[in-house]
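User: Hey, my collaborator sent me this sequence without any context and asked if I could get a structure. I don't really work with proteins. Can you help?
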Amino acid sequence: MKTAFDCAAALTVLLLAGCTATVVAPAARTYRVYFGTSAKQDKCGIYMADLDMRTGQLGQAVRVSNAVSAAFLALHPDGRHIYSTGESKGTVNAFSLSEADGTLTIINTQPSGGTGPCYVSIDPAGKNLLVANYSGGSCSVLPIQPDGSLAPPSSVQQHTGSSVHPKRQTKAYTHSINCDPAGRFAMAVDLGMDKIMIYRFDAASGTLTPNDPPFTATEPGGGPRHFTFHPSGKFAYANLEIVNKVVAFRYDANKGTLTEIQSIATIPVGFDETKTTSEILTSPDGRFLYVGNRGDDSLTIFAIDAATGKLTLLGRESTRGKIPRAFRIDPTGTYLIAANQNSGNVTVFRINRKTGQLEFTGSTIEVPSPTCVQFIAAP
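Assistant: No problem. I've predicted the 3D structure and written it out in C-alpha cell form, which is a compact way to encode the shape of the chain:
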C-alpha cells in the first residue's frame, strides 16, 4: 500500500545514514510462533505454527491449548513458560512448554487482580508477571514461582479518573503495562484517563509504588494504548488508539520520567472510515518503529533518529487481512508477522534492514481470531 503518504526513497537513505544495525539474537533455522486468540467455543485457545527462517514461510497452525479468552501472551525469558490473559474470567494462566512438540500444559490459574485483563508482560529479571486489567482500570503484579507457577497478586494499583471522549473515556481503562529495560520502573498505559501511569517497581517484593511524578499526560481524547521502549533505553513510544497518532518521549532512566518530544499521525489526512491503532513496536536494532492501524488495515513504518529519538514517516504496508490487532518482530529482526483478527489470518513480511520497508513473503495461514504473536526458537 504505497501512497503519497510515503517518503521519497532518497530522503529515506539520508535520514537513515549513520544508523548502525546490530545483531540482537543468534540465528535459528526455525521459530515456533504462538498466537493468542479471541476465538470462541470449539475454536478457542492458543495456536502455534513453525516459521522457516530461510524462506519466511509458516507451516499450518495447530492448537496447543484450549484456554478460554487467552487473547494476550507473554513469554518467559527461560523459553520454557508462557503466560496468558483469561479476559472473560478475570484470570491469568501459567503454562509449561514442551520442548519436544511445543504443546502447552497448564500449571495454574490465578485472579488477575482486576476485571478484564487484556495485557501481560514479564519483568526483565523474569520474577514477576505484570498485568493490565482493562475494564477494571487497574494494574497488578503476580510473582512467578521457581516451577513457573503464579502466586496470587502481590501488588494492585487501582486507577481512577476519566477524559474527554464521551463513550470511551468515562473511567479508567488500563490497556498495557511494561517495565523499563533496567526493571526499575513500570509504565501502565491508561486509555480512559489519557495518562501513562509511572510506578517504581521492586522485582524482589513484586510491588508497584507511584513514582514522583506519578504520571505523564497525553493528548486529551487520544486514548493511549500500548508502549514500547527503544533498545537504547533513552526513548519510548506510545500509540494513541482513538486519534491514530504516535507520541515519542525522552526517557530519564534515573527518575523514571517521560518528556514528550513529538506527536505524529499514522494515517493520511482524509481517511474517514473507522480507524484505531493497535500494536506499536521498535525493531530490535532500534532503527525503525512500526504501528498497526485497524480499519485502514495497515502497518505504518517510521525511521527513528538515533540521536534525538524523533520519527520520520517512511510509508505504510497492507497487512493482507482485516483488523490487524497485533504483530511481532522475530528476535533476529528478519520477519514481522501480523495477526489479522477479523479475517482470521496471519501474514509474514520480510524486513528490509536498510530501509525498514516490509516485503510480503506470500505466506499467510488461517488462525481463528488471532490477537497476539510470540516467538520461541525451536530446538
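In plain terms: Confidence is low (pLDDT under 50) at residues 1-24. You can pass these C-alpha cells on to your collaborator as they are.
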